[in-house]
Amino acid sequence: MHMESTPEHEWLKQLIGEWEYEHKWITGESDETMTSKGREVFRPFGDLWVIGELTGTMPGGSEMTALTTLGFDPVKGKFIGNWIGTPMTHMFIYEGERNADNTVLTLNCSGPSFEDVSEMADYQDIMEFKSPEERLFFSQYKDNEGNWQRFMEGVLRRTK
After folding, report:
1. How far from the centroid of its chain's Cα atoms is residue 91's Cα?
2. Rounded to whole angstroms, how far apart are CA atoms 58 and 80?
3. How would you class 118 by CB atoms within 10 Å of its CB: exposed for 0-12, middle for 13-18, buried for 19 or more?
4. What are the pLDDT digits (tens) for 17-31?
5. Cβ atoms within 10 A of the Cβ of 101, count?
């Protein structure tokens, strides 16, 4: 079976390249912030997928690596993928969609809750393309009252 690339697959190719990032993390109820910096490199994987590898620091300075795989499932009409990172044992499975003007990709997933790691919580990773050279990234979780709580936001700038 061979699937043809769609406009959604082509849209994902704007991620291909090298990016530097700085993320701000909001920790706990005090709204204290910490920062992390690093590099993310996206490459094509055939015509239907992109793969990103992030290397950098976590809040507090420890090193981390993460892998992201993104594609589009025309049957579901959804962007799909996954995320794994060296500090975690959970694989986050993405399913999401773009906004109407095609500048924001919201990826929904579930993973261990901040309150109790034996419980699962809903999460969103959000990419907002400001220009071909800059994108924003946000992570948030749904709290026990059903409200989205942002815990990380960042800026990525293309270096290549």
Report:
1. 13
2. 25
3. exposed
4. 999 999 998 876 666
5. 6
Tell me the C-alpha to C-alpha distance, in Å, between residue 105 and each of 41, 72, 89, 100. Answer: 18, 12, 25, 10
Show Cβ contacts of residue 37 under 8 Å, excluding neighbours closer than 6 positions.
20, 21, 22, 23, 56, 57
| Stated pTM of the model | 0.92
pLDDT in tens, 121-149: 999 999 999 999 999 999 999 988 899 99
Residue with more model confidence, 114 or 73: 73
Tokens 């993390």 map to which residue?
A: 25
